[in-house]
């Protein structure tokens, strides 16, 4: 399989952490790209018409994209270890993924606004609205961290770990662990996992 990726993308990292946790990272060839929201990538767009990463090319040439789809595919391929197949825990896991994706989408929007748009054109109320969403999502993760299973890593924890890691990398919200002691204590342990260390983006 071939994965189109950028090492600083949290959505890519989520897929890579999943692959490492499942023990199948060696089956994935990485192809570096750095698409931007302002220009279609001529290499990526024939693979993913949305010109977004991650995108995964399977052995038979079929292409999958969107990190949630890729995580579900890899977990199913490996026997279903990270996403419960049924029951309340499945929906809690998928809800946690949606929460983390929403935090990241708000954060990425702020990052691009600040780094790609001229400063005099920044829309401050919109920026603050996105930051409020991210802060609210982190507060929800603080509550969710109390229920993370210390004996079994699932997609919910992977998503949370990648989200906290990316926010700390970009520094958009200051100290995201401050005032969130359960999330901070959990992340301190989770960030030391081999899958997180192996996928850490360059500083």
Summarize this structure briefly.
This protein is an alpha+beta fold. It has helices at 10-22, 67-77, 88-116, 124-145, 155-170, 181-190, 194-198, and strands at 2-5, 29-32, 55-57, 63-65.
Can you describe what's shown?
By secondary structure, the chain is an alpha+beta fold. The protein has 2 domains: 2-77, Glutaredoxin (3-Layer(aba) Sandwich), CATH 3.40.30; 88-193, Glutathione S-transferase Yfyf (Class Pi), Chain A, domain 2 (Up-down Bundle), CATH 1.20.1050. 52% of the residues lie in helices and 7% in strands. The chain has a 4-stranded mixed beta sheet with strand order 2-1-3-4, with helices on one face. Helix 1 runs parallel beside helix 2 (67-77), helix 3 (88-116) packs antiparallel against helix 4 and helix 3 (88-116) runs parallel beside helix 5 (155-170). The radius of gyration is 17 Å and the shape is globular. The model has no long low-confidence stretch (mean pLDDT 95).
Total number of beta strands: 4
CATH architecture heading of the largest domain: Up-down Bundle
The N- and C-terminal alpha carbons lie at a distance of 27 Å
Mass-distribution shape = globular
CATH topology group of the largest domain: Glutathione S-transferase Yfyf (Class Pi), Chain A, domain 2
Strand count, sense and barrel status of the largest sheet are:
4 strands, mixed
Counted up, domains total 2
CATH class of the largest domain: Mainly Alpha
Spatial sequence of strands, sheet with the most strands: 2-1-3-4
Unreliable stretches (pLDDT < 50, length at least 5) are none
Assess the beta-strand content as a share of residues. Answer: 5-15%
Structural class: alpha+beta
Tell me the Rg in angstroms.
17 Å
Helix content: 40-55%
* Whole-number mean pLDDT: 95
Order of helices and strands: EHEEEHHHHHH
Oligomer: single chain
